[in-house]
Each structure stands twice: as C-alpha cells, then as structure tokens.
Amino acid sequence: MDHQTEWRLDAARNLAEKLKGKAGIRAILVGGSAARGYSDVYSDLELIAYWDRQPNKEEKRAIAGELGAVHRYPKIDHGHESALEIEGFPVDLWHKSVSEEEDILDRVFDEFSTDLGAHNVVDTVRTGIPLYGEELVRKWQERTEQYPDELARRFLDEYLPHFHLRQLHFAARRNNPAAFFNIMSNIQSSLFIVLLALNGSYFPTYKWMFKRLHELPVKPENLEWRLREMYRESPTEAAARMQEVLEETLQLVEAQYPDLDTEFARYGVDQPVPERFSDSPFE
Q1: pLDDT tens-digit profile of 161-179?
Q2: Angle at CA 176, nearest 5°, toward 175 and 179?
Q3: DSSP characters for 209-228?
Q4: Residue 80 belongs to what H/E stretch?
Q5: Hey, where are the domains in the chain?
Q6: Closest C-alpha to 18, from 62, 70, 80
Q7: Class for domain 3-144, per CATH?
C-alpha cells in the first residue's frame, strides 16, 4: 500500500471510531480514491455513514461538530453539506439510508439500469472498505461480484453507436480545436464505458478513467498511452489513431459477443476522410 493511501485509511479508521456509536448508524464505509488505492497528494477522504433512516440536519450538524469539522464550501454550493474540513484536511462525509443504497443495487442488478450515477454507487460499494457494520456491507459486496451479462449488453447497445467519426474528421481539418477536443473526449468517454462493460467493471467516474483502464485485462494494446497521445499530436493524426483504437475495440466486442449487432458502430468507425471541394463541380 502506498503512503498516500495508507495515511488516509488511518484517518478514516479514527473518524469511524467516533461515528460508530451513534444511534441509527448501521455501517461506515471508506470509499473513493483511498479505498480504490488511487490516492494522490490532491485526494480527499470519502466516508459514508449508512443509517437505518435518513438523518435530519440537526443530527448531521451535531456529528460535524463532534468531529471538529467545518464546511469547506458555502451554502450556495451543492456539496456544502457533505464537504467538510477536519484539521485542515478535506473530508467528504456522506449520510445515506440503508434502504436508499439497496434501492440503487436493485436498480442495477434486477432492472439492469445503465445510469452511470447508480453504477458509481455500485463501484463504491464494491471497492469500499467497511469500517463498521461489516456484515451488512459484505452482503452488498456479494451482489457486485457477478456482473450481469444483460447489463453488459445494454451498455454496449447504448454506447457503441457513439463510435462515430464523421464530425471528428471534419473538426480535425477545420482548425477548430474546441470542437475537435470536445468530440474526441466524448468518444473516449464512450469507449471507456464500452470497455468497462466488456470487462464486467463498474463505473468509477471519469476522474479515474485512466487508472481503471490500466487495470482492465480486455482492451486494445497500449491503450492508455494511445489515448493520451491523441491530445498531443496533430488533430488529423489523433483522428486516425482514434479510428485504429475503435476498430480494435470493435474486434474485441465481436469476439466476446458474436451475436451483437455492430453494423452501425462499424459504419461510424469506417467514416471516410472528408473530400475537399475548392471549385464548383457545377457548370
């Protein structure tokens, strides 16, 4: 375990000791970068307290006071309530009810929802480290161990059509870097979701895209380097590299799901380089 992760986990254990005796708290989980082993010098600490009900504002305020915490952001910020600062260090303390968490798990595993917010919750549960109420958390984690095939298929059906390069080719040739990088970033994001589905991996948020890609076994060769290079090379070279990556990804999809309809995705990947029309073809 690296130093940045280790001391954050030590801090989480100390905070959990102060929280676990509170009436109504069923479990405490450390999530985020510390639980995933992704912490760097900019990482905060994410703690989730699971209650048998939704706590009221007075209870949350009392807990923050007992922890010696102050709010990092003003009330106009949507993260005001959960974003705390303890001893000058940023701590996100989330309060959730057990039923709320289990409803999200049901949406993903029973209804096969492709909502990315719900999948981030699942990934947090899967990678989280229980500091209290381990039996409850382990029960949830058992549900995450088997990634449903139907869920993978739904993600592939939804995100493979984003493998479309027509507008990327145009933006690469029109000296429009804002449009080019916007389109390219969106395609890379969809590629990430496709590869998560192929590997039976849940969504850690785009913030951790490259760290999670590094962990995935099924992906195009040297993928992380190739995706980063697209932001350094010329737009036309980047578009060509993107075409290669998407083609290789489609081959992986078709090998794993030979019955899946990839016709439109292949149409999008095989988009030709735009023709130039300097002079009128009309007489």
Answers
A1: 999 999 999 999 998 999 9
A2: 150
A3: HHHHHHH-SSS-TTHHHHHH
A4: none
A5: 3-144, 149-269
A6: 62
A7: alpha beta
